[in-house]
């Protein structure tokens, strides 16, 4: 196994800030924490020429694409090109505790949703953020580093809908191939794979109180077979640094002469020849647009926003939409439809007593930075989402939870900057920030965050124009389901938290819930159902889990874009292998399932070419 991130002696004397983080990036890069030239394969972009030819072209070096490119290049007879629109990840991506600062950086596409009718009403222009990784590693380089796989029912539902080979028992093999669980004896998870996984148990005293409170309410441990309960989840953090898909899968391939990586190379469309055969891609790189040929297949792993965008730019998509923009139709498929996302609500916050958290001062934070930069240990080596998760279903369904619960501690005086990061990421309105800022000066706080596991609301991705490099339109359509089930599930989550904080176990922390006077909700009585539903419509937002826009399904499914072997229906020489193929959103964080899709998709390519059925 390759090892990374050797300690580098550094001393710092300033508070965290944007300028401070720039300094951190410079220091860490120069001190060998992340040296892209040494860690990853070299950038081949400047050597690309119009008409270059490869066996396989993989578009997107994210959670799935990194795995696909790595696996395909294991065959020395295959010449593989990986095209990534972003560059190498910066040193900032390596620090687990600062992940929320990466949204809106140059390693994020910077997307926002189109104005919503039913959600994001309290944020500027009614546009919620849609962070998407634009760097080698994709969203696995900017996310919260939580690793879960989902429940048995998630995948068995896919299979029952006609997706042969995607049941839980079948995909479990592919999860275990990529996993390398460290320090925990859990036979359910793989050992010896490329992705380092560790279990983090929060050092905060409040964790014990939450555990006892869950037990007091009658809940036990979460299991994939029975996904209701609490769970100290696994993270892809290793030796204090983020272990992204790029680090896990591409670093090992650095010396392979048949793998070529081109960075800052954005694909606009695929090229199509006779018999609906995809022959290559059109890519913008180094200020020019060139065409590159694929003799075997093009694999789109550009994610749930960009994969459908590329297909629609190429004439593969909804006929009416393409006709409206003047894009010649090649294949009428429901590309860009079926957009799903887990919806998060960051509007439940409690004050708690000082002994709920490990004591910290501003001076301690400076020491924490020194400890991290020198030894890769301490609070900064952990994700700021406390690694204690709970799946609750207030309706009593033990097989299909409706709510996933997180908590995030906020120190008095915001010494780590966590509150400001949440406020910025989720564009919280000023009236909410004012209450939070006043409270955090007096007391520790804790965010209790409910998240929908199976949202009923469905959105879509559309082109903004016929320009292949224009920003796509993202219609999340949050909270738009006609029966109001999403609103009710979030409300159930809030009420569950209120029951939790009222337990004898949690009362030791003297919890005091903050009331946020949303301008748009002042007509509703505080803590009424109507108040909470209004609050959801104002600030509920993304968990970075967009999926489903190139839906997988059998030929009989009129909404399907790809078949169960991830080949586009009616096309040749092209597959989609990323989170966009999920027919239904899994009930947990999507990064692990997306990497599994990358592994399974690569295995299918090997099988199909070995058995001579790649063109079927």
Task: Note down, in words, how this protein is organized.
The structure is a single chain. The chain has 616 residues and is of the alpha+beta class. It is 27% helix and 19% strand. Strands 1, 2, 12, 13, 14, 15 and 27 form a seven-stranded mixed β-sheet that branches. Strands 8-20-21-22-19-25 form a six-stranded antiparallel β-sheet. Strand 13 (265-272) and strand 14 form a beta hairpin. Helix 5 packs across helix 16 and helix 13 packs across helix 15 (529-539). It is globular and about 70 Å long. Mean pLDDT is 91; it is low at 1-17.
Low-confidence stretches: 1-17
Q: Which outline best applies?
A: globular
How many distinct helices? Answer: 16
| Euclidean distance between termini CA atoms | 38 Å
The largest pleated sheet is described as: 7 strands, mixed
Counted beta strands: 27
Helix content: 25-40%
- Class based on secondary structure composition and strand pairing: alpha+beta
Mean pLDDT: 91
State Rg.
23 Å
Q: How much beta, percentage-wise?
A: 15-25%
Question: What descriptors fit this protein?
Answer:
alpha+beta; six-stranded antiparallel beta sheet; seven-stranded mixed beta sheet; globular; single chain; 16 helices; 616 residues
